[in-house]
Design brief:
By secondary structure, this protein is of the alpha+beta class. 33% of the residues lie in helices and 23% in strands. A four-stranded antiparallel beta sheet has the order 6-7-8-9. It is elongated and about 135 Å long.
């Protein structure tokens, strides 16, 4: 059960003048939905914990950087001489089919960090060169590969809330997938969301997952076998005495045999009469 939540408290709204200064500094216009968010609250941090195995374990984390930390990302790498330099097109571009659907660094005008994801990756507001419909939300994994998350900030915000900020939830939208530990937390706290993500991305559950999550054929809603998931022991029926099986009733044939065996034989009667 959830035992505690922690937030940064009531953050003051960002000053609209600061938003204008940010846009002038970075020479780009923020979408209206993220502007409205910062005018309401300058960032967000909501954490929640659970009691597990007798101890309190931090679990969920939902975070949006404040305006001051909405910074442009640079992805350094080391060249053959050991010097750090910026990523080039040749370092990140690939000719495989899957990479063609991802934005390449040659197509990205600017990218700003929304959430550092506890160093598991970065959620970014990405401005593509010649892109239509405004900037979009992408996830940059530790292998420096882009994965699409949402068309707008509010769409991403809803995804974050629906996934409860569970550890590494952004990897549900990548070809890497969730780690086994993350899947266990999803099976326990958000099985419906996990089933929807798997269905939308066309993933097939492994045999191990199928044993843990019994999906309904119509709604694809997972039901959890808690005893198997956490290997709990069921002690309720250990001390119950075993029930004795009822004895089957005697058949008529057996009863007749018993009556016949108790009757005196004809030879015995004849010997008694001869003795008299």
């Amino acid at each position: 059960a959830v035992v505690s939540t922690q937030s940064t408290g009531d953050r003051k709204p960002a000053d609209p003048a600061r938003i204008l200064d940010w846009e002038e500094e970075h020479v780009c216009k923020l979408p209206d939905d993220i502007k409205n968010f910062y005018i309401t609250t300058d960032g967000l941090l909501l954490c929640w914990s659970v009691k597990f195995n007798g101890s309190v374990t931090p679990l969920g984390r939902m975070e949006v950087n404040p305006l001051a930390n909405l910074k442009r990302i640079t992805i350094p790498h080391c060249n053959k001489h050991g010097a750090t330099q910026s990523v080039t097109v040749a370092d990140t571009d690939s000719d495989d089919e899957d990479s063609r659907r991802r934005p390449k660094f040659s197509q990205i005008d600017k990218a700003f960090e929304i959430d550092a994801c506890c160093s598991h990756g970065k959620v970014c507001l990405v401005y593509e060169i010649g892109g239509t419909g405004g900037p979009k939300i992408w996830f940059l994994d530790r292998a420096v590969r882009w994965h699409f998350l949402a068309h707008s900030f509010m769409e991403y915000f809803r995804l974050m809330v629906m996934h409860l900020g569970l550890p590494q939830w952004q990897y549900a939208f990548t070809d890497i997938g969730l780690s086994p530990m993350s899947k266990q937390w999803f099976n326990l706290y958000a099985p419906v969301r996990l089933a929807i993500d798997d269905e939308q991305l066309g993933r097939k559950q492994s045999d191990t997952d199928a044993d843990i999550v019994v999906a309904d054929k119509n709604l694809s809603i997972g039901k959890i076998d808690i005893d198997r998931l956490f290997k709990l022991t069921n002690d309720k029926n250990r001390d119950k005495p075993a029930k004795k099986k009822p004895q089957p009733p005697a058949s008529p044939q057996t009863s007749n045999q018993k009556l016949t065996s108790n009757r005196p034989s004809l030879a015995h009667l004849a010997s008694k009469r001869a003795g008299r």
